Design the sequence.
């Protein structure tokens, strides 16, 4: 991924009409936006569609982007708002498909068969527990732990204070802890 300064420069060039700069912004940000959409919507196809819609909306609204602010949080806000709109239209109905192949690429060492089974079961339990959270709590958890955003960034994305972000995360963690103990 490009450095923050490079992203800001590309965003400015894209605002001025550069298709090449927009393509580079897409390349740099699409995987992260897809992951956010994937976790928020619980369905791979919907996440692919949402990612395309997010970038279309962002391209159309690029003139509204305040160049004095960082580009990535603005794009995450567009994505979070799109996902939030989709979640409000309907309850998520997709299953979390198995992302073991993607997750195993991140593993340092190959686990034993017993460890692999336990790991797979744990990941499935966590995914299911996250999927059971209410929409806003799920989105806050995804932005914090999967998009690695700070409380302030999450607050900016969702239009809430960083303190309220902390409250939502605290409640969500308690709910997750309770569900995972069961």
Sequence:
């Amino acid at each position: 991924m490009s450095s923050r300064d490079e992203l800001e420069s590309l965003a400015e060039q894209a605002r001025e009409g550069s298709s090449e700069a927009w393509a580079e912004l897409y390349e740099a940000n699409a995987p992260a936006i897809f992951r956010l959409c994937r976790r928020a919507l619980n369905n791979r196809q919907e996440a692919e569609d949402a990612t395309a819609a997010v970038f279309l909306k962002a391209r159309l609204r690029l003139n509204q982007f305040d160049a004095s602010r960082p580009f990535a949080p603005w794009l995450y806000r567009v994505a979070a708002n799109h996902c939030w709109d989709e979640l409000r239209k309907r309850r998520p109905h997709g299953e979390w498909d198995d992302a073991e192949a993607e997750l195993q690429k991140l593993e340092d060492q190959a686990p034993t068969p017993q460890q692999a089974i336990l790991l797979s079961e744990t990941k499935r339990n966590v995914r299911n527990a996250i999927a059971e959270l209410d929409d806003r709590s799920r989105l806050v958890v995804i932005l914090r732990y999967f998009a690695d955003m700070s409380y302030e960034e999450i607050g900016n994305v969702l239009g809430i204070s960083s303190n309220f972000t902390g409250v939502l995360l605290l409640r969500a963690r308690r709910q997750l802890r309770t569900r995972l103990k069961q």
